[in-house]
Design a protein that fits this description.
two-stranded antiparallel sheet, mainly alpha, single chain, about 170 residues
Length: about 170
């Protein structure tokens, strides 16, 4: 089950801290900048999209189940936090939420936009998630595996052929 280590602030950051000490945006981006240098397969937008997709899965789609308090927090302290409970999302759930978010944000161009960031398959979502876990920006449960993301759907089918404009979608107004 996947979870953001902490909620996104108004500006991009995956940083998680157990104590609420304000940090500079530059300090928050250091681990991500190092990751981008070490693994150049994905652009920063790919990491932003996957992070936003996890929040979308949890907050908008209501996916995931409530998990235990994070390590280092007592149950009392975790229950005293003002934020919503931690919700774990499976790798497959996250992939389907990312498909839906890509359709919502980029429409028929979703596959091309994701490809421009280095994302060509659901396996890439898994690589991004595990990169973020590696730098402490996301976490996983003991049951999660990198392979949970592999071959969840075919990008051409899911992002291009299955795309449909529905009546619920609002037209763009200039």
């Amino acid at each position: 089950m996947w979870q953001l280590a902490d909620r996104f602030p108004p500006t991009f950051s995956f940083l998680a801290t157990e104590i609420n000490v304000p940090r500079s945006p530059a300090a928050e981006l250091v681990p991500l900048a190092k990751l981008l240098a070490e693994d150049p397969r994905y652009k920063i937008e790919a990491y932003q999209f996957v992070g936003a997709g996890l929040e979308y899965a949890q907050e908008v789609l209501g996916l995931g189940r409530q998990g235990p308090p994070r390590k280092g927090r007592s149950a009392k302290r975790a229950s005293d936090d003002a934020g919503p409970p931690v919700r774990h999302v499976s790798g497959q759930q996250l992939c389907w939420a990312l498909k839906r978010l890509a359709h919502q944000q980029y429409g028929l161009m979703a596959r091309l936009v994701l490809a421009s960031w280095g994302i060509h398959s659901t396996g890439d979502f898994g690589a991004i998630v595990y990169n973020l876990i590696g730098i402490g920006k996301m976490s996983k449960s003991g049951h999660d595996r990198r392979e949970d993301f592999d071959n969840v759907y075919d990008f051409e089918q899911a992002l291009v052929r299955d795309y449909a404009i529905t009546k619920e979608e609002e037209p763009c107004h200039p």
